Amino acid sequence: MDPTGPYIPMYSEEFAADPHKVYREMRRRFGSLAPVELAPGVPATLVIGYHTAVRILNDPERFPADPRVWQRGVPENCPVLPMMEYRPNPLRTVGNDRTRYRAAAVAAIGEVDMHALHSTIEEIAVTLINSFCGDGYCDVVGQYASPLIFATLNAMLGCPPELGHRAARGLAAMFDTVGAAEGNATQADALLELARLKRVQPGDDITSRLVRHSVQLSDEETRQQLALIYGAGTEPPQNLVANTLLLMLTDERFAANVLDGSLSTRDALDEVLFNDPPMANYCISYPRQPILIDGIWLPAHQPVVISMTACNNDPAINTGGLTDNRSHLAFSVGTHSCPARSVALLIVQDAIDQLLDAVPEMELAVPRSELRWRPGPFHRALVSLPVTFPESPPIRIGGR
Q1: What is the pLDDT of residue 224?
Q2: Which residue ranges form the domains of the chain, and what is each CATH number?
Q3: What is the pLDDT of residues 83-119, one digit of tens each?
Q4: How far apart are the C-alpha atoms of 382 and 310, rounded to whole Å?
């Protein structure tokens, strides 16, 4: 691999339309490490070999996540900078700082009442379903997955809707890398307001638990933890809902078996998390010094990005098994593994089950080939998921 190029662009509509084709070509040409561009003029190494990725993810000493040296040479208007820049949170720090921030986040998320969360999701889901069940049509992304995940996360954070809407708009711009700098500022202002609000009006929510944790986070530090939770808790779950429903509606293995009970929603979730996870490429590190991996010299302080999708589909480990295979990297591994895995899976599975229970005869409204995917190097996200179903009357909490 020539470290000066050619680089494979990961920001184009062509990549978004069929990234699996690009990953296969990368593997054929480069093996486990591929030269890519995350945005024009932003080179990186993409890890597409499963065992190589696990090795890197479990070696934070040689592959730290602190990007500060790298970003000195990156212009402020770089579209991927807001998703990659240094932040005082557990994803972008090392050593004692990372330990401190992660302790607060793990504790705050760990106190989420899962039974209460289930009730919250059901109430939100029923309200949304009743807004379109009489129409016989909806866009799952815009009318269901996005508002459900958004409202659920705001409830968990104790966030007023107006602040939540501002944060969500900003984060969407950051993921799409369009207007990313402005989006970064928008979400920052909203979340700083939330942190300050909970200092004077605490409640039984994640934000209040962050504020009162023994590590004594400042308002700015609290904002940064909230930014990470919002980033991980909105886009990926909503896209996982949509991507899983797409699989269940179009793949005969699921379409024929979910309703008869031989396959479950969790089986479909595991399939998507393995083959097409919503956070496709991330877990970024910046080697402190040049390092030789798989016969390739990786330059110091340049981004090394883990392709969870490509690694999960590495022929070395993907045997094609459908169910009970949860060795995927969708939630990362090692010191940066996601502490909200159980919460996220509960939210997504409940969201899907509520919708399928209400409108079980749902069908895709357009050919799968006509669906469009949002460009961006990091996520796997549908623009929309239009579906049809028989018109039905409103439902009640707990059933019809």
Answers
A1: 92
A2: 8-388 (1.10.630.10)
A3: 999 999 999 999 999 999 999 999 999 999 999 999 9
A4: 18
